[in-house]
TrEMBL record:
Species in which this protein is naturally found: Scylla paramamosain (Mud crab)
Name used for this protein in its record: Uncharacterized protein
GO MF assignments: methyltransferase activity
GO biological process, any: negative regulation of TORC1 signaling
Entry keyword annotation includes Methyltransferase: yes
Keyword Transferase: yes
Amino acid sequence: MVKETHRYLRERFKEEGDEAWKEHLGKEEELKKYAEAMQTLATQHWPAETEARSSRVGWVRAAVREYFYGGGLKAATDKEMRKIRTSWPHTGLSLLLLPT
């Protein structure tokens, strides 16, 4: 039910845009079945919080948090800026335009 609904919405959105979403929201009985299916997934199939830490989902969540909130983005940006500064004579960039 969940995968089929997502696939259907993606296809319809490509064809009709926002109208597909409006139509979807009007299907109360289908939305109720979808909500029940999502609850079943969340409570019976997805790992509990303690298990999630060692799962792929938990790993991705931790990696995203580290990147955006733990300094990963700044470290990646700093690394790229060092590469640019090192190669700037070959690229024609002015060091005056680069942030420090």
